[in-house]
Amino acid sequence: MRQHGRECRYRGLSGARWLVLVGVAMLSGCGWVSGWFSSSPPSAQQPEERPVASCPSAVILRPLGQTAVFGAGQPRQPAGVAFYGVLSEVDAQCERSGDSLRLKLNVVVVGERGPAAKADSADFQYFVAVTGPDQAILSKRPFPVRIAFDGPGKRSGITDHIEEAIPLGGRQGTDLNIVVGFQQSPEVVDFYKKFRGR
Q1: In Å, how far are 41, 105, 159 from 46, measured between CA atoms?
Q2: CA dihedral of residues 175, 128, 92, 156 (deg, nearest 10)
């Protein structure tokens, strides 16, 4: 279940640290562990109150916390960027139901016009992954978002609301981690290696 809410927060684009975690975003063919990220709506027969559970820690992978969209036919340089994207904030809340968690995520995504911007909206794609104690990826799911710009404003943003069911399989919620990052193409990875500070 997803809802979009507009929220204009901006905390600046941090410098990219190119760590081994960049590999997470390149796993576009990563298989799903059955049942881990179910997007089916909650059952209509749910108890009125659910116990609050300890959530997995939810973090933005800083090497993948920003991205760039290039203008058509533009060079893969700062002058050719139509839009920058930044994952500004992620907040998680959980409710326990048997051997599963109902995870509620609020992900703040901010867009910024670049020198080559011509459109009034930008499309980005970020992912949410569940990892185990050894950082192995248990599941990974992409989420596309579109950010509209009103008038001549340089920045705009949304808060993406996501609800997912996570079967625990006998684990504790604190044994898992939720990681969020942009799904980056090789050309974007190369761009940030060459132009870290834009």
Answers
A1: 11, 20, 26
A2: 160
pLDDT at position 91 over 70: yes
pTM over 0.85: no
Q: Which of 3-12, 93-102, 132-141 has the lowest mean pLDDT?
A: 3-12
- 3-class secondary structure for the chain? CEEEEECCCCCCCCCCCCCCCHHHHHCCCCCCCCCCCECCCCCCCCCCCCCECCCCEEEECHHHCEEEEECCCCCCCHHHEEEEEEEEEEEEEEEEECCEEEEEEEEEEEEEECCCCCCCEEEEEEEEEEECCCCCEEEEEEEEEEEECCCCCCEEEEEEEEEEEEECCCCCHHHCEEEEEECCCHHHHHHHHHCCCC
CA distance 144 to 121: 13
Question: What's the rounded Cα separation, in Å, for the pair 33 and 168?
Answer: 12
Among the listed residues 3, 6, 10, the one whose alpha carbon sits nearest the alpha carbon of residue 113 = 10
CB 142 within 8 A of CB 183: yes
Give the residue from 83, 157, 68 showing the smallest Cα distance to 116.
83
